[in-house]
Amino acid sequence: MSDTSDKRKNKINHRDKVVMILSxxxxxxxxTIFSQTVKVACVGNSVxxxxxxxxxxxxxxxxxxxxxxxxxxVGNFGHSGAxxxxxxxxxxxxxxxxxxSLDFKxxxxxxxxxxxDTDPRAWPKYRDEFVRDYINLIDTFKSVNHAAEVKISRxxxxxxxxxxxxxxxxxxxxxxxxxxxxxxxxxxVELLDLHAPLxxxxxxxxxxxxxxxxxxxxxxxxxxxxxxGDYGGLKPSSIFTSGMVLQRNKPIKxxxxxxxxxxxxxxxxxxxxxxxxxxxxxxxxxFPSLQAGGPYNxxxxxxxxxxxxxxxxxxxxxxxxxxxxxEFRLKQAYTAxxxxxxxxxxxxxxxxMQPVAYTNNVAWDKETLEKINRLQYFTETEWKRTTPETAxxxxxxxxxxxxxxxxxxxxxxGLILNAVGGSPAESWIDRYTLEHHPRLVxxxxxxxxxxxxxxxxxxxxxxxSELSDNPLQRHPYQPSYLxxxxxxxxxxxxxxxxxxxxxxxxxxxxxxxxxxxxxxxxSWRNAWNNDLPFYYVQLSSMAVGRxxxxxxxxxxxxxxxxxxxxxxxxxxxxxxxxxxxxxxxKQIGERLxxxxxxxxxxxxxxIPSGPLFHDFFVENEIAYLSFEYAExxxxxxxxxxRAFEIAEFPGMFYPATAEIEGxxxxxxxxxxxxxxxxxxxxxxYSDGNLVNIEGLPASTFSTQY
Length: 705
Fold this sequence. Notes:
The protein has 705 residues and is of the alpha/beta class. It folds into 3 domains: 37-228, 3-Layer(aba) Sandwich (Rossmann fold); 359-600, Rossmann fold, CATH 3.40.50; 612-702. 32% of the residues lie in helices and 23% in strands. The protein contains 20 helices and 29 strands. Strands 7, 9, 10, 12, 13, 14, 15, 16, 17, 18 and 19 form an 11-stranded mixed β-sheet that branches. The chain has a 5-stranded parallel β-sheet with strand order 2-1-3-4-5, with helices on both faces. Residues 1-12 and 18-34 have low confidence and may be disordered.
């Protein structure tokens, strides 16, 4: 071999060595870059610090560290009492944690500040500085690391038990929340929602302000999702299953969760639509409205996952709610054997939300109690066709309502049953509404012992919860609980209206119920952003221990005129003297259907109600009473009208003689020369017999309240 060849060979070897060295250096550099930990700075006040959490490992930054793993370094820079405002009483800017958080040079900054700014020492004086101060804080963190990703947070809750809640902190809190949303838009930073998942968990806030370790876990999970985008993959809302009904003549919405920044595609009715999943893992896709019909299929897909649901109908959805008389099963009804045999209605679909435990007079085990705290009170279910097997365990009232409406309209009907025995109306109202109601906000305070709540409900809640170690143990009868556990998650679903059968657990305080019930209707209408028809059942009759029922039934009648787009089905003629659960449910369901057919579906040939008191005048010691829906006015048994009473002075009523004449009822008594007050069907167990041509009973009423 020549010298030239040797030199060429040496040059090649040298070049190869250089290339190899450079390659190794590059690989090492890349490896080093990718092996560097991502620094996460948790900036905030006592909630971030973990005040009240004895075990440091349970504070939210520590739990976040475990969730994120070794590729991340999480720093806790929370300081109790810190304000965002520079002119606050303890500005975060002046605290050592602020300097430490800057020196940390975080790649990701999570800010949760503002709770302490609701203090009267801060917000009233310096509120106009909040937005500028917060933006300045964001810019400061970006200045020490230009690549830093800053995320700010909606505030964790302040609950009603806080000492300053009603002295304007409630209002200032929401003003701060609104300001934080503005700041997120101006600064173009991600807004984390730490409020929504915790506002329905008061059991995790022993001092009404600071979460426990379990509450900190929810914060950590929320932040983890925001950082990683991991929300467990594609999950449509649990209200969507095969066999479902979707509301006709309104936009059809599908929603659920998936991993952040992925794309969800839906194939429905031969149309495909897609949407990006937001940073909170939520998605929503809307299709144009459809007329009644079907069946249809729908397929949800994302990142290789696909979920198909079939046998979907377009029709009308009715929410059926209340307490045990709505819950009362078809198999328990007086006409059960006939009803179950005939329950073959393929286009009437049932969504039966059953509780994990009934509120019987027993102590629940700790597993059940924990499920209830986690708002897992209703078992998972699916839409089912109406068959003898599915109908027998469904609400008798709801079944007969749906059957009647379907038979009269031919429109597919979806019935969502969400009723809990013994539940008071306040448990079905959303928390924000109750918190801001000037009279009802007090319901939350020591609710198992206050006079707002029916004594029986309090006793039963204490019995069910007696094995709990948590002094803030939740219960279905607690104000707002059933809304949070059973209503809140379905409010995006368009529905036709509501039927409601409840009142026995509020009868002890008629005046309070006159505030609660309209508030409940308003709460639901606001949640659905719709003036939903609301048809309800008046209390029936019962002889023992129901002294308030006459007053209550009359109050329910009066409320019908105060609440627009509502109607009331009378049931006093079907009461059981010894049982709060009358078994004649078919008539009640069909009476509710009359209101729906008349008022919602426009069937003007239907009489929606029995006689409803309209007016009266007195002539020659006789009172003449007129009624609405009084066509063919008569008595149910052919005997003279009974259960009428008259008085000259309030509280001095005497039994009256009554007769029907020309569609008017004449009422008089030898003991009352100048009738001024009249009432009908007032006893707790009424034997009133006034009906119209359809045999529908007249409501309890009084011209005096």
